[in-house]
Specification:
With 121 residues, the protein is mostly helical. It is built from 4 helices and no strands. It has one domain. The mean pLDDT is 89.
């Protein structure tokens, strides 16, 4: 594995992740407009939503059942996961290149990203 090959693989991962997230969010939005276009939304009071759109298992289950909000949330989760996957792929690529310094730096960045994702309330 060389630097150019790693850059191509990471670039393809980022493109695929963003494209997949956009398609899923668009499908969820289209489904929302098709099913709930006459639904009146009250913007005076904020409602955080149900647990099916606030937890990862709930989002996946909701998306599997073709719930429009679940699909849109799943697309956003994929969009957030794309740069995390990029850093994980960089760790693997740098380890295969036997570049210890960049492997360690990438592992630190990956650790900070994972910690920030799971420690958020």
């Amino acid at each position: 594995m060389n630097d150019q090959k790693l850059e191509i693989i990471i670039g393809n991962l980022l493109r695929a992740g963003v494209l997949l997230a956009a398609v899923i969010v668009f499908a969820g939005g289209a489904l929302y407009l098709a099913r709930d276009h006459a639904h009146h939304v009250d913007y005076k009071n904020f409602v955080a939503g149900t647990s099916s759109t606030r937890t990862l298992p709930g989002i996946v289950d909701s998306a599997v059942h073709l719930n429009s909000m679940g699909l849109m949330q799943l697309g956003l989760v994929l969009l957030i996961a794309t740069p995390v996957a990029r850093v994980a792929l960089a760790v693997i690529g740098f380890a295969l290149e036997r570049d210890r310094m960049y492997t360690v730096v990438s592992l630190i960045v990956l650790g900070v990203l994972i910690y920030s994702l799971f420690s958020a309330t």
